[in-house]
Specification:
By secondary structure, this protein is α+β, with helices and mostly antiparallel strands. The protein contains nine helices and seven strands; from the N terminus they run H-H-H-H-H-H-H-H-E-E-H-E-E-E-E-E. It has a three-stranded antiparallel beta sheet, with no helix packed on it. A two-stranded antiparallel sheet has the order 1-4. A two-stranded parallel ribbon has the order 2-5. It is flat, with a radius of gyration of 30 Å.
C-alpha cells in the first residue's frame, strides 16, 4: 500500500490547516526578504521573476485555504480554483498551484524551478567579467550611466579579453546594471560627515546640550497642535529662544537621481562639490524671522 503522501491527488485529503497557516507565514517572510539589520526596511529577496510569481501564487492560495476570513476557508479545491480565477487562469493553473503548495507545506526548501534560460546565459555569469564591471562602476562614483557601461563593454580590449561578439546596446547595459544591484534613484544621504557618534560628542549632547535646552524650554512659551499658546506659570523669567537656520547650496548638487547600489548605505553630505553658497537666518517661535530696526530681513 502506498504511503499517504504518494497516493494520487484525488485520493489524498487536504493538508492540515494549521500546517498551511505556518507555511503561509514562512512564505510571507521569504517574499518580504531579510532585514537590513539596524537600518529600516528589508533587502530584496534573490528570486527571479518566474520563481517570485509562482511563490506569490502559492502564498495567495494558502491564504485562501487557511485564512478565517476567506470564503473558501478549509476547502482545498475551492481555494485553488478561487486563486486561479483571481489570477485570470483556469483549472490547470489551479491544479499546479495546489500541487506546489502541498510540496511547500511538506518541505519548505522546495521552491519552483525556472525552466527558462537554460540554453543561454548572461555575460555576467562570468565572474571575472562581472568583477571587472563592478570595479569600473566603482571608479565612476556617482557618474554611472548605461551609456558609459555600454561603451566600456564595446572597448576592443574588453571584447577580446572576454570574447564578447555581439553588440552591447544601452538597453542591455541598463539590464546589466539592474542585475548587478544598481537602481536609478536618489542616493541616501546622512546628516553629518563624521564625529556625531564619537563618545565625547554623545556625552556633550546627552549631558550638556539637551539638559540645558530642556531647562530653557521650561521658561519659554509653548503652543499646542492648534497653534494656541499654553498660558501658565513659567519656571522662572521668560526666555526667548532664537534658532539658527542654515542652508548650504553647492554648484554641483543639482543632480539628484543617479545609479546607486540598492544595498548602498546612506552617505554623509560632502562639502566640496563645487562652489558653496550659504544662506543663514534666525527664527523664533515667538516673533518669527529675525528683523532689523527698519523691518529688513536678517538673512545673509
Amino acid at each position: 500500500m502506498k504511503a499517504h503522501s504518494e497516493r494520487p491527488g484525488y485520493k489524498r485529503t487536504a493538508p492540515d490547516i494549521a500546517a498551511a497557516q505556518r507555511a503561509a507565514l514562512d512564505l510571507a517572510e521569504k517574499l518580504r526578504g531579510p532585514t537590513r539589520g539596524k537600518c529600516r526596511g528589508y533587502k530584496v529577496p534573490n528570486f527571479d521573476r518566474y520563481t517570485r510569481l509562482k511563490l506569490e501564487a502559492i502564498h495567495a492560495f494558502l491564504n485562501m485555504y487557511a485564512s478565517f476570513s476567506s470564503v473558501t476557508y478549509g476547502r482545498w479545491s475551492a481555494s485553488a480554483k478561487q486563486t486561479a480565477t483571481a489570477a485570470g487562469r483556469g483549472d490547470y493553473f489551479a491544479e499546479c498551484v495546489a500541487r506546489m503548495a502541498r510540496q511547500y507545506i511538506e518541505d519548505r526548501n522546495v521552491l519552483p524551478i525556472n525552466p527558462f534560460g537554460k540554453w543561454s546565459t548572461s555575460m555576467l555569469a562570468d565572474e571575472d567579467l562581472s568583477n571587472e564591471i563592478l570595479l569600473h562602476l566603482q571608479s565612476l562614483g556617482n557618474n554611472i550611466t548605461a551609456e558609459k557601461l555600454a561603451n566600456y563593454l564595446r572597448r576592443e580590449d574588453i571584447r577580446e579579453k572576454y570574447q564578447i561578439g555581439g553588440h552591447i546596446s544601452v538597453r542591455t547595459a541598463q539590464r546589466y546594471l539592474f542585475e548587478l544591484g544598481y537602481r536609478f534613484t536618489s542616493p541616501k544621504k546622512g546628516q553629518y560627515t563624521d564625529g556625531h557618534e564619537r563618545a565625547d560628542v554623545v556625552y556633550y549632547r546627552d549631558h550638556v546640550y539637551l539638559p540645558r535646552l530642556a531647562h530653557l524650554q521650561s521658561r519659554s512659551m509653548a503652543w499646542d497642535k492648534d497653534n494656541q499658546p499654553f498660558y501658565g506659570p513659567l519656571n522662572g523669567r521668560r526666555v526667548i529662544i532664537w534658532y539658527h537656520d542654515e542652508t548650504i547650496f553647492y554648484a554641483h548638487d543639482r543632480r539628484r537621481r543617479v545609479y546607486c547600489h540598492k544595498d548602498a548605505p546612506a552617505k554623509p553630505y560632502q562639502k566640496g562639490d563645487g562652489v558653496s553658497y550659504m544662506v543663514a537666518d534666525y527664527v523664533s517661535a515667538d516673533f518669527g524671522w529675525l528683523r532689523g530696526p527698519n523691518g529688513e530681513r536678517a538673512r545673509r
